Amino acid sequence: MIRIALVGCGTMGETHAHAYTSLEDAKVVAVCDIRSHHAEALASLLGCEAFTSYEEMNKKADYDVLDICLPTYLHCRYAIDAMKSGKHVFCEKPIALTLEDANRMVETAEENKVTFSVGHVLRFFPQYQTAADQIKAGRIGTPALLRTTRNQAFPGWSWENWYQDLEKSGGPEVDLAIHDYDWLLCNFGPVTRVYAKNLGPKHPEQMHTLAILRFASGAMAHVEASWALPKGIEFRTTFELVGTDGQLCYDSTRDCPLKTQLGSDEEVSLFYDNPLSEEMNPYRAELAAFLHAVEHKTEPVVTAAEAIAALHIALAAKESARSGKVVRL
Length: 329
Ligand SMILES: NC(=O)c1ccc[n+]([C@@H]2O[C@H](COP(=O)([O-])OP(=O)(O)OC[C@H]3O[C@@H](n4cnc5c(N)ncnc54)[C@H](O)[C@@H]3O)[C@@H](O)[C@H]2O)c1
Hints:
Structural class: alpha/beta
Bound molecules: nicotinamide-adenine-dinucleotide
Mean pLDDT: 94
């Protein structure tokens, strides 16, 4: 039985907590959030102890894995601390805000011989997995043109509105488009050039990024990610993957999960549920894969080097948008 401690009981902490409830051979023994009611809510769901200080949790709880669902600017500090005390670490994406921090995390994991992975969850979405399998099988021939979108209203749910502060979230390149950068790198190989635009600081609540990636294979990708949609508009992701013999297309709004939309005078909420199978929950699948790697001492599906490679593209897109120039990698 692998014992888990979860730090950060906000949006993603709650998502992970629900995923753990259906995982066998894993037990969340402690949760921590500086907002006590958030920690207590998840502790009562999971039947474990609640803490409001990570340091206290680390001292008192006996666990093997730290699951980090903290705001991004805190990932590095807590991951390194936990690794130094011999804990395996699963960290939400993005790995960190800078390559220096990300490299320090990887070095610390290696020095302490602990397993470390990052929540690049697209790898575990059934639709993206199926597309990856089809590409590997050569179904669309040689991939040439790749287009992805990931568009939503500004994530106004966060603790102290930390997404708004680009020093803390990294903006839509580092926080949002990074999902697609990881998936594209994993399936189409290394990128050699990045050219990007974004809406920039004049639109503090309407952040949007558009990047063109050139792959070493010669393929090109057009990656769009947005926090610029008006409040209440539904989150939507798409891909079009065109090869010499065909194309693969996906649109999350045409997918078949159960969609619940609740409106009030204040706000509109939209929930997606998959009534088909718990096994298809990608967050459950990514955590199960990580725990399998811990238990069997194997390389995780998402390696830390891959998380760094995705961050590298995101930072190149930011740099290109800032300078107006192509960034060569
Ligand atoms: N994989 C995905 O699909 C996905 C989706 C959204 C967010 N994320 C990532 O997950 C991470 C968390 O994002 P979120 O949307 O859940 O944020 P959030 O603001 O909803 O939750 C963060 C929580 O951390 C708590 N917290 C802050 N400082 C703390 C500290 N020092 N000790 C303990 N608790 C502390 C806050 O009280 C809050 O409850 C981010 O890195 C984000 O990029 C991933």
